[in-house]
Amino acid sequence: MTVETLETALHPLMTVDVVVPVKDDAALLRRCLRSLRAQHTRPASIIVVDNGSRDRSEVAAIAERYDAVLIDEPMPGIPAANAAGFDHATATVVARLDADCVPPPDWVTRIAEAFAMDPELEALTGPAVFIDGPRLLRAPLAGLYLGAYRLFVGAALAQVPIFGSNCAIRRATWDQIAEAVHREDAELHDDLDVSAHLGLHRRVRYDRSLGMGISMRPFTDAGSLALRMRRGWTTLRVHWPEDLPAVRWLQRSTRLRGGSPGALRR
Questions:
Q1: Which of 23, 168, 169, 261 is close enough to 51 for a disulfide, judged by CB 3.0 to 4.6 Å?
Q2: Peptide bond preceding 241: is omega within 30 degrees of 0, i.e. cis?
Q3: Which part of the chain is the Glycosyltransferase 2-like domain (predicted)?
């Protein structure tokens, strides 16, 4: 019995689609899709969302080579591309990474197992390490960046935030928030926005064992880093005043006192 057959036997109803937004990253997309096709548990489908690439013909050829579904999202911005991919997905769980990511071979398996073993789990996320840049700085810089993200965004939302390069959401949960997410605004971080819409009543878990390889490219330019920070701040502000940190922490405290389950159990 192959690993894939074994996983299917263990979790016959747990299927995973993978969404990969892409724009002008054909070469890196090839590496990403190759790693997805090498997964111990094959995704039900791989959905590549082209967001206006100048090299679209190359993107199309790569998607076809790796048997991925290619859809186009003309509205600019990762929020629109991400939402289009999730809308297109039909599996039980929808996983998400970026075109410059390289998941370990057990990534899909861990996602399927996590949701199969925890029926109340609605979203899952994990850490990452840089796979390029100065070798000695890869792990500590990734830890610093993602640690700061979890600390500050987690404090602002009073919950575990999902990390867009390494996350998965139940398709049924996406259906509940799809119309509310700010998919039209290219100046927002889609993962932070989705995290806010998941809310305090849904169970979101951070799994240290759910690894991911990411590129250091966005962090080598001061302008790009500043843009990310500005978009993060903008994303938080669009949810105010209803979701001000003080309001969310008060709601969290109320749920804890009431013994309410869900997102407060990590």
A1: 23
A2: yes
A3: 18-128
CA angle 211, 214, 218 (to 5 degrees): 150
The ranges assigned to domains in the chain are: 9-257
- Asked if 202 and 263 count as a contact pair (C-beta separation under 8 A), the reply is yes
Sheet strands (E) in the chain: 16-22, 45-50, 69-72, 93-96, 121-125, 129-130, 167-170, 203-206, 213-214
What distance in Å separates the CA atoms of residue 150 and residue 162, rounded to the nearest whole number?
A: 9
Q: What is the pTM of this model?
A: 0.91
Neighbours of 190 (CB within 10 A): 26
Side by side, which strands form the sheet with 167-170?
69-72, 45-50, 16-22, 93-96, 167-170, 121-125, 203-206
Cite the DSSP H helix spans in 56-167: 56-65, 78-88, 107-117, 135-157
In terms of CATH architecture, what is 9-257? Alpha-Beta Complex (3.90)
Cα–Cα–Cα angle for 78, 80, 82, nearest 5°?
65
